[in-house]
Amino acid sequence: MVVFLYPSHLGTEQFSAVNPQDGSTGSEPVLLYDGDIYIGHLPQRMQLAYTTTPGKHYFMSAAFNADFLEADLQAGGTYFVLLDAVPMAVALGTQFKPQNGPMDDKLAILHKTLDYAQVNRHGIALARSKEVETRRRLLRENNFAKWQADTNHAYLGAGTGE
Question: What is the DSSP letter of 74?
Answer without folding.
Answer: P
